[in-house]
Automatic annotation (TrEMBL):
InterPro entries: DUF7810. It comes from the Eukaryota. It comes from Urochloa decumbens. Pfam families: DUF7810 (PF25102). This is Uncharacterized protein.
């Protein structure tokens, strides 16, 4: 299991990723804030923007909102705005954002400065498209290139799926732009690491988080990272399956010396048990935040504890620890292994692997052999992959009737770019997703094939839904009554 998903042995995800890296570089060179803010009024007032706005709920879900905006800005040739709340970026205590992005505050200032509404007749407004509202979203049926609104906000994209819906958009220009950035959905063997490349361009750790990462690494990056999503549970099967998966990673990566394995988990109580298993054959690295707090002389300021309703997402450690863990894990040189009590390949794990691969791709020796593996213990495979529900989980597209039941522990090669459709071999939808796609106007077969004629007919029968908000009051010409 997994070879088909990750495209083992065929194509070159690294080559595709480096192509996308160059696309992103050129995009920010032309549409980045450093250039656009210097444009003369007649050019600036014609400019288009995409807003990425996130809260501070689960890190993976919220980061995908920002990355979706980054992807859409590339596809539509618009500049990127990263939304702030009361003057603060999302997770701004722990993450630094690219200086090639704008804030809404700066856009408002420049819009007034250049008299865009009065002189050029362009009011500053936002057109909002909410992905989580199937009857109203225009993600499949509209050519967003034709939208004239200064700012577009594609809201509700909490995973890798939302922006990839554009791969099935009925307008050739939209589909072509999405395919250039994400690859073809049925070409799993050579799809780029798009979200990793976007992260590489858009975010970096804050100086204090980077200092904590350096403290933990002590100058040597891990060969392999194990991420365990335990949610306060300590199942023995999950632990043993993960150890087997690390050993497989060592074989794939052909590491002959004693490997250095970094361990990341949302459940500190399970760490000692996992460490004891791994330490039999590897040097184990784990960020001990309590020791760091006592001995480093550094202080990381921010929310000390997650919100109560998010404690299962963040775990029992202070919130900032998850960011140190994230950027530490993204230093993996050869492989990321993700395991879990229940759902494997969460958005957090996906982004760790994506950023780690982006950090390696393009280096010498080649990063082509970077490996992402999912450790799926046997209890999760009694009914195939049917437990992997939820679009944010990487194996959801394999959870349907084609997934094999009652398999032993699996260590599955995993794509760096999570699939959003069911075009690959062995992919099949669960009934809930078949029903959900119908709400978007997409008729799926039991094997996940899209009825293209039905989608075109659906799009012809509907009108664009327009939801628009004014950022600045619309200009009223005093000469008109």
């Amino acid at each position: 299991m997994g070879e088909e998903a990750a495209g083992a042995g065929r194509g070159s995800p690294e080559r595709a990723s480096l192509r996308v890296r160059e696309m992103i570089r050129r995009h920010f060179e032309l549409q980045g804030a450093e250039r656009v803010r210097m444009l003369p009024a007649n050019e600036f007032c014609k400019q288009g923007f995409v807003l990425g706005k996130a809260s501070e709920a689960g890190f993976g879900n919220e980061m995908y909102k920002i990355l979706t905006a980054g992807a859409l800005s590339v596809m539509l040739n618009r500049s990127l705005i990263i939304g702030q709340t009361r003057g603060l970026y999302p997770f701004g205590e722990y993450i630094s954002y690219t200086n090639q992005s704008f804030t809404i505050h700066e856009i408002k200032h420049l819009w007034r400065k250049h008299h865009c509404a009065r002189t050029y007749g362009r009011d500053l407004n936002i057109r909002v498209d909410i992905f989580e509202n199937p009857p109203e979203t225009n993600v499949l049926c509209s050519d967003w290139n034709s939208w004239k609104d200064p700012i577009i906000w594609f809201d509700g994209t909490t995973d890798a799926v939302g922006i990839q819906f554009v791969l099935k958009n009925v307008h050739p220009r939209m589909k072509a732009a999405a395919s250039a950035l994400f690859g073809l959905p049925d070409s799993l063997d050579a799809r780029p690491n798009t979200f990793g490349e976007l992260m590489r361009a858009i975010i970096s750790p804050s100086s204090t988080v980077q200092a904590a990462v350096n403290w933990a690494l002590k100058g040597v990056n891990p060969d392999i990272v194990l991420h365990m999503r335990m949610m306060a549970n300590r199942p023995v099967r999950a632990r043993k399956a993960a150890v087997l998966c690390i050993k497989r990673a060592l074989q794939i990566c052909n590491i002959k010396r004693t490997p250095r394995v970094a361990l990341v988990s949302d459940t500190p109580g399970s760490v000692k048990e996992i460490m004891s298993d791994i330490s039999e054959f590897a040097e184990v690295l784990y960020f001990d935040y309590k020791l760091f707090t006592k001995t480093s002389g550094l202080e990381i300021v921010g929310n000390d504890k997650p919100l109560d309703f998010r404690s299962r997402d963040w775990g029992s450690a202070p919130r900032w620890v998850a960011f140190v863990d994230f950027f530490l894990a993204a230093q993996a040189k050869y492989a990321v292994v993700t395991g879990a009590h229940r759902r494997v390949g969460t958005t957090y794990a996906q982004l760790i692997a994506a950023l780690a691969a982006a950090n390696i791709h393009g280096q010498e020796p080649s990063g082509a052999n970077f490996t992402f593996l999912s450790s799926i213990h046997s209890n999760l495979l009694v009914d195939g992959l049917s437990t992997q529900v939820g679009w944010g989980h990487i194996w959801n597209r394999y959870a349907g009737p084609l997934s094999c039941q009652r398999q032993p522990h699996q260590c599955a090669l995993t794509p760096l770019l999570p699939p959003a459709w069911w075009d690959g071999q062995w992919q099949s939808p669960i009934p809930r997703d078949v029903r959900r796609l119908l709400e978007y106007g997409v008729r799926l077969s039991n094997m996940g094939e899209v009825d293209e004629k039905h989608l075109v007919s659906h799009c012809r029968s509907r009108k664009d839904h327009v939801k628009r908000y004014h950022v600045l009051p619309p200009y009223k010409n005093p000469g008109r009554t």
